[in-house]
Amino acid sequence: MARHRIQRTDEPSPHRVEPDPRWKSLRRGDRVSVRTHPGYETGGLVDAVTDDHTVVWIDLDGGRGRTLLHISDGVEILPSIC
């Protein structure tokens, strides 16, 4: 059994990610628009938000299920204008 751990230097060290101010305003039941990449947008309802606002559960419109989004995923969550 190896006694020494090999340190990998090619992996970035973890760092804290601060949520976008729009994520900080999200509350359960809010209607939102989710943009995952240019040209793709879908709607849904906020189902849950963690206390630090870095993780959000969204119930997607059209019966497409519930999805978990993390702030580091590069996803925009915007209030929906209805």
Give a verbal description of the structure.
A hairpin with a 5-residue loop joins strand 3 and strand 4. It contains one helix and five strands, in the order αβββββ. It has a five-stranded antiparallel β-sheet with strand order 4-3-2-1-5, with no helix packed on it. The protein has one helix at residues 21-24, and strands at residues 31-37, 40-49, 55-60, 66-70, 76-79. The chain has 82 residues and is mainly beta. The radius of gyration is 17 Å and the shape is elongated. The protein is 5% helix and 39% strand.
Low-confidence stretches: none
Largest sheet: 5 strands, antiparallel
**Strand-pairing-aware structural class:** mainly beta
Strand content: 35-45%
Apparent shape = elongated
Summarize the structure.
By secondary structure, this protein is mostly beta strands. The chain has one helix at residues 21-24; strands at residues 31-37, 40-49, 55-60, 66-70, 76-79. The protein is built from one helix and five strands, in the order αβββββ.
Write a concise keyword list for the protein shown above:
82 residues; 1 helix; 5 strands; mainly beta; five-stranded antiparallel sheet
Helix-strand blueprint:
Layout: H1 21-24, E1 31-37, E2 40-49, E3 55-60, E4 66-70, E5 76-79
Antiparallel strand pairs: 1-2, 1-5, 2-3, 3-4
